[in-house]
Amino acid sequence: MKKIGFLISGSGSTLQNFIDLQKEGKLKGQITVVISSKKEAYGLERAKNAGIPFFSIEYKNYQNNIKDYSREITKILTKYNCDIVVMGGFMSFYDIPEEFKNKVVNIHPSLIPAFCGKGMYGKKVHETVIANGVKVTGCTVHFVDNEYDHGPIIAQETVRIEDEDTVESLAHKVQAKERAIYPQIVNQILDDLFTVKDKKVLKKTL
């Protein structure tokens, strides 16, 4: 069974979704390690409760040296033989090494390339979407490269925005889509169903 490394920064709700699916036998890989960019992240408690090894690696402890910080993350992922890396609300920048190219995946709460980039995360995305009068938003699963929300797009799900939607109600609708599509795509990655050509992700024909 292929091994999954998980990167988090906060409550770990995405991590918990994957842990639950793993317990139910619906995840085609095993989460072998969780790394948080914040030592107080509740997601570390979730990892502990699930019996998954966990680490806290805080950027501030690396004198703002992104290379050293990323190297430490890579060292742990390599130690635990991770085949792929899943980001679940990871708020720090991870400089992807060549050995993890197209093996790190993230989900963003908008339809990339709209409403994304540095500083665009969580409620900020939904606030901006509503402020701009957008009628359709959604979420995007993508491979991570060394630019914010820039890597090859794997899949997207759409959400209609109603006139009465608030930031909270919109976030709830987008998160429901995220909970469904993210593990589905991760399972397909674990099954080696995708290939990346230039900027495009192509699904292999069986």
Question: How are the elements arranged and paired?
Answer:
Elements: E1 2-8, H1 13-23, E2 29-36, H2 43-49, E3 54-56, H3 66-79, E4 84-88, E5 104-108, H4 123-131, E6 136-143, E7 153-160, H5 167-190, E8 194-197, E9 200-203
Parallel strand pairs: 1-2, 1-4, 2-3, 4-5
Antiparallel strand pairs: 5-6, 6-7, 8-9
The backbone outline, from C-alpha atoms, is globular
Largest sheet: 7 strands, mixed
Oligomer: single chain
| Helix-strand string | EHEHEHEEHEEHEE
Radius of gyration over alpha carbons?
17 Å
- How would you state the average pLDDT, rounded? 95
Compute the number of structural domains: 2
Main sheet: which strands, in order across? 3-2-1-4-5-6-7
Number of helices: 5
Low-confidence segments, ≥5 residues, pLDDT <50? none
CATH C-level of the largest domain: Alpha Beta
Output the CATH topology of the largest domain.
Rossmann fold
How large is the share of residues in beta strands?
25-35%
Structural class: alpha/beta
Residues in helices, as a percent range: 25-40%
DSSP strand tally: 9
- The CATH architecture of the largest domain can be named as 3-Layer(aba) Sandwich
The end-to-end distance, rounded to whole angstroms, is 21 Å
Q: Report the CATH superfamily of the largest domain.
A: Formyl transferase, N-terminal domain
Structure summary:
This protein has two domains: 1-100, 3-Layer(aba) Sandwich (Rossmann fold); 106-206, Formyl transferase, N-terminal domain (Rossmann fold, 3-Layer(aba) Sandwich). Helix content is 32%, strand content 25%. It contains five helices and nine strands.
